[in-house]
Amino acid sequence: MLELLIEEKREEMIVLAMELGFTAKETVECSQELDELIHRKLTSYQYIM
Questions:
Q1: Which of 21, 23, 30, 48 is the S-S candidate for 13 at Cβ 3.0 to 4.6 Å?
Q2: In angstroms, what is the C-alpha Rg of the chain?
Q3: Phi and psi for 22 in degrees, rounded to 5?
Q4: Residues 6+ apart with CB under 8 A from 16
Q5: What is the pLDDT of residues 1-45, one digit of tens each?
């Protein structure tokens, strides 16, 4: 589930970066959302091990 959300958010971020630029507010916000999803995934693995 998280893997799919991460992939979708990554693709969204790439599109935003290409259209608006890497430093655009929307791109940065999307990047932060992607970071949060990745953090959630990595944290969930720690509890499994």
A1: 30
A2: 12
A3: -70, -25
A4: 24, 26, 27, 30
A5: 899 999 999 999 999 999 999 999 999 999 999 999 999 999 887
